[in-house]
Specification:
By secondary structure, this protein is α/β, with parallel strands linked by helices. It is built from 9 helices and 10 strands. A 4-stranded mixed sheet has the order 4-5-1-6, with no helix packed on it. It is globular and about 55 Å long.
């Protein structure tokens, strides 16, 4: 949403984390019904101007506590529908939110976006080795499938005390930046573990509007602007 406001772009977010769809809650859109039109499913919009469009399996489930117990072919089929059968309209950016790993969801997205220009992937890790090890495998996946790595973001990079604003490195520090150096990837920046950001996501509030003077906002803003400039220069 920060990118959208800064650059006045038409943005779509496709949530392909089929077993844990969290985008509807984080963007506070509730569970509206998805309607059909002549062009397919109508995405859910977050604003009256229809500048941010969403699609998630979370909108299609009658019970939010229902578990999605699907094998690969069924996941692949639904992701194909999300890409080709949703009336996205004219988008400047389609952001695909995937689950961790290198599984059916990732392969299905790439297969269904073959005819479109895929700019690349942004990989997110936490600082500790157990996380960077997983992301290292995702980097290998990107290289094998020909997906450009736009950059690496280190999340939960230190804990910001809500009382004194001091930052403590709970999960160590620098793992994401070191991983970027070792793999020849761009390091986009670090985002601290900020209780205010966590609460905003839980409540579906816009953190960037509520806390524009925070260090966390500054970090997110810098990462966003760096990424957009990189895409615009291609």
């Amino acid at each position: 949403m920060l990118n959208q406001r800064l650059y006045e772009t038409q943005v779509g977010i496709l949530d392909v984390d089929l077993c844990g769809p969290s985008i509807p809650r984080m963007l506070s859109v509730g569970r509206p019904e998805v309607h059909q039109c002549d062009s397919g499913w109508v995405p859910v919009y977050t604003d009256a101007q229809k500048s941010l469009a969403l699609m998630s399996i979370g909108f299609l489930m009658e019970d939010p506590d229902e578990a999605v117990v699907w094998r690969g072919p069924k996941k692949t089929a639904l992701i194909g529908q999300f890409v080709s059968d949703v009336a996205w309209g004219e988008l400047d950016v389609l952001l695909v939110d995937t689950p961790p790993g290198t599984s059916d969801e990732h392969l299905a997205v790439l297969e269904n976006l073959k005819k479109h220009k895929v700019d690349g992937a942004v990989l997110v890790t936490t600082p500790q080795a157990v996380s960077t090890g997983d992301v290292r495998r995702e980097i290998t996946f990107c290289k094998k499938t020909g997906v450009r790595i736009l950059g690496i973001v280190e999340n939960m990079s230190g804990f910001v005390c809500p009382h004194c604003s001091e930052c403590s490195n709970i999960f160590s520090k620098g793992g994401g930046e070191e991983l970027a150096k070792l793999t020849g990837s761009v390091f986009l920046g670090s985002v601290p573990l900020d209780p205010l950001l966590g609460a905003s996501l839980e409540e579906g509030k816009d953190f960037t509007e509520s806390f524009p003077d925070s260090a966390t906002f500054s970090a997110i803003s810098t990462i966003s602007q760096t990424l957009i400039k990189s895409l615009e220069s291609d």
